[in-house]
Design goal:
The chain is an alpha+beta fold. The chain has one domain. 20% of the residues lie in helices and 17% in strands. The protein is built from three helices and four strands; from the N terminus they run H-E-E-E-E-H-H. A hairpin with a 5-residue loop joins strand 2 and strand 3. The longest helix has 8 residues. It is elongated, with a radius of gyration of 15 Å.
Amino acid sequence: MCIKESLRLHPPVTVISRCCTQDITLPDGRVIPKGVTCLISIFGTHHNPAVWPDPEVYNPFRFDPESSKDRSPLAFIPFSAGPR
């Protein structure tokens, strides 16, 4: 829990980029066209108060199984997401 919380507060990679391989329609109807490069802010995700209450406070108990069961698996992405 302590390592995960440290990585949440201080991610080793702060931003990643991905190139869209197909047109993507967002829930609000906007379209991200194929070929566009999207930036994903890992730092911003890990410090988002809508996902992490008191995001600037070190609290390893955020990663207690009971505390994290309702959180999206994409809320904590210190090294990006997906298979390696």
